[in-house]
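Methanol dehydrogenase regulator, Candidatus Scalindua japonica. Tokens?
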Amino acid sequence: MQKTDGREEVSDIKKEIDRFKKDFDSITEEIGKVIVGNRDIVEKMLIAFFATGHVLLEGVPGLGKTLLVKSLSKALGFDFKRIQFTPDLMPADITGTQIVVERGDGRKEFEFTQGPLFTNVLLADEINRATPKTQSAMLEAMEERQVTVAGKSHRLREPFFVMATQNPIEMEGTYTLPEAQMDRFFFRLHISFPKADELKKILRQTTINESYTIQPVLNPDLAVERVAEMRKLVREVLVSSEMEDYITGIILATHPDNKETRNPVTEGGSIVDLVGRYVTYGAGPRGAQAVALAAKANALLDGRPNIYEGDVKKVAASALNHRMLLNFEADADNVNSHHIIEKILEKLEK
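Tokens:
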């Protein structure tokens, strides 16, 4: 009887994994009907969403970043709002504010009016143009899922997902995001310019009278519950002790002052020299958490209840590239964090 129960439990887990993959793929395909190319970006954006993280998206203007986030909200059936960040934007402009209202009996009292942060999917456009004070309000919303106005906290809706953008070209008049806020982003993704065939497809789709309307994939009445189930399943994916050591080794290898003699990256010298020469600070615990959660989601997409080395390799660069602080010498030698992470993964390869 116990064996039968065990088989039934395994069967139930497989059904849940298959259902997760089916819903994930359906959302990806629905978004792909409007977004040309960039399938890897779409998949990683969804991985971050189901891992309860936020995404920082970088790319030159006109590559469809706004359309991408709108398409995600429509495919999921959730509310969408966009904030264009500017230097004169105040925290109250995004969190909401207290206003005086007059009741029917003549009494006047304060009432909280919600700002654009009270949504499910938020596009924070050019977030680095906001002042540090406004950025700190965004930081609280992203990390705590709440805003504080006049000393009172207000919970945000669930699910709450932020896709922030930065323009890598025009940096004049911007306020660089501090490392503490960069660390709050689950992934930093770079959207590249479309290839020739993709550009032609964009022309065909956007210069005719016909247009495609994205339909919600999830049942609108049960979307919130279904997303909660999928997020719960991601965290239930198994991580072996060996994989924990592997992820820990990657994180430690990003630190120039790493003294772990058992860490394979410290042997051979080449990676130690690379990190020691170009890296000021390495990734922290949040980086390890992001790699593990993203690897778990990737394992589910492959139909497995446990992660392996390939899952970690697929997501490590996106999860860690913004958590490493490089020095001026790295900029002068045109060395970026992606390059360093790739070298670390090569050295750790079994």
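The chain has two domains: 16-83+120-144+157-206+222-233, 237-348.
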